[in-house]
């Protein structure tokens, strides 16, 4: 079989269930451990010699194109096609029809995948599907397999009879385009192939594959990815600083005296932390972040260009880029019921804060509260219900 050197990455979707974090950027650009989800996919392909990449973009496509450009900085060659309406994965793949060779790989741009998973899969015979065993399969498409061959695919089953889920990674021949012609969804196209007697091989992986569906999944993925980081100390670390476990600190970052950091933690470039700040495990801090004295950050994701005032406490929270949180900000964490669209979930969670929010001093946010993008909150407020985008709380 010829070596697979060409891939399609489906990166057109919005990710509505991830709002507020996808209102101003596509799901594929949500940062996990200071890298967009899509970058993990590109790097996994590049490390396996799959360097000819066609990206199907759509929702806020300019941001994806600006970040990845020609792909040169990532060791790949990237071209783009546009899915002007986000009608489904089959419709997205169809946009690539005129550009593909006889055999090619397809990957989802919104799942983190390990290079090892791709390496094992490239030896499979097209048409093939990469599957992974999951404990909870309720939010995935499950795959019925017999003797290494896919028998059926079922989206989000109520009573699953298998624990194998569809990872959204495929090896196809050009034959697939005959079936996506009428089908908007890729799963429907595959079911039609099976019904017409075409064989789809199932290849199981036990390598890392991570999916982000809901806002709190960002924290779970961040925790998992950080467990694999290598310690590196850029910037300046003043006297009296304590670092424990794997901690990665970017260039030109200053860790001020008496700060205490317990890894795994990643801190970007051009940050100023402390003095006397406390950062505990499973925390990512982006570039150009200011964390003022006596502030405490636990199990949280802090975006680029965020300013956190003195004596703030942030736990189990996501604070998106460009936010300014004045002193004595508190995001409380607790077990709460959170509604996303028409679904209810019991989760342990802090605050979910969108981009470019301005929150004055002394604000307390209850567990599980979502604050929309570009919102402003006046001093000393206690937030007990969700705040929409561009709101003013006085």
Structure characterization notes:
The chain is an alpha/beta fold. It has two domains: 6-213, Alpha-Beta Complex (Spore Coat Polysaccharide Biosynthesis Protein SpsA, Chain A), CATH 3.90.550; 225-393, Hexapeptide repeat proteins (UDP N-Acetylglucosamine Acyltransferase, domain 1, 3 Solenoid), CATH 2.160.10. It is 14% helix and 35% strand. It has seven helices and 40 strands. A nine-stranded parallel beta sheet has the order 15-18-21-24-27-30-35-38-40, with no helix packed on it. It is globular and about 65 Å long.
Give the SSE layout.
Blueprint lengths: L5 E6 L19 E2 L2 E2 H10 L5 E6 L3 H8 L8 E6 L6 H6 L8 E6 L2 E3 L1 H7 L6 E6 L7 E6 L2 E7 L8 E10 L2 H5 L5 H10 L5 E4 L4 E3 L5 H10 L5 E2 L2 E2 L4 E3 L2 E3 L4 E2 L4 E3 L2 E3 L4 E2 L4 E2 L3 E3 L4 E2 L4 E3 L2 E2 L4 E2 L4 E3 L2 E2 L4 E2 L4 E2 L2 E7 L2 E7 L2 E2 L4 E2 L4 E2 L4 E2 L4 E2 L4 E2 L8 E2 L1
Parallel strand pairs: 1-4, 1-6, 4-5, 8-12, 14-17, 15-18, 16-19, 17-20, 18-21, 19-22, 20-23, 21-24, 22-25, 23-26, 24-27, 25-28, 26-29, 27-30, 28-31, 29-34, 30-35, 31-36, 34-37, 35-38, 36-39, 38-40
Antiparallel strand pairs: 2-3, 6-11, 7-13, 8-11, 9-10, 32-33
